[in-house]
Amino acid sequence: MKSKLNCVMVIDDDESTNYFNHMIVERSACTDNIIVAQSGQEALDYLANSEPHNGEENKKPCPALIFLDINMPAMNGWEFLDKFRQLSNEQKAHIVIVMLTTSLFPEDLIKAKGIPEISSFENKPLTEEKLDMLIRKHFVSI
């Protein structure tokens, strides 16, 4: 039996996209914990109260993988990353961030490549094949 990711988080302001992405992750059976955040701030609040090693019972599981949208109101994906960098090393340790976007701007891809926290830049929609490829690429032992 293959191992599962501790937790997968989806950050997107679009409810139907979140539903679809949740369904794809659930169908893949790569984790038992799927967290959906409709804003960057909601995701940061969750991460600030998560336990990287799932050692405390009152803490929430820390995501191993985050799918992050760029274009969101109030706090876009870039602003989320600025705040994410301010979390403690323990809070952000070993989290793989995949920018999942509809952006067709070449500047966004160039900007993403210059940000070490972004492990991959992918176009929507998320598919089972894309998810499988990302897991194989970033989680060799899974």
Summarize it:
With 142 residues, the protein is α/β, with parallel strands linked by helices. The chain has six helices and seven strands, in the order E-H-E-H-E-E-E-H-H-E-H-E-H. It has helices at residues 15-28, 40-48, 77-84, 89-92, 106-113, 128-138, and strands spanning 8-11, 34-37, 50-51, 60-61, 65-68, 96-101, 118-123.
Report what the structure shows.
- The protein has helices spanning 15-28, 40-48, 77-84, 89-92, 106-113, 128-138, and strands at residues 8-11, 34-37, 50-51, 60-61, 65-68, 96-101, 118-123.
- The protein is an alpha/beta fold and 142 residues long.
- It has one domain: Rossmann fold (3-Layer(aba) Sandwich), CATH 3.40.50.
- The strands form 2 sheets. A 5-stranded parallel beta sheet has the order 2-1-5-6-7. A two-stranded parallel sheet has the order 3-4.
- Helix 1 links the parallel strand 1 and strand 2.
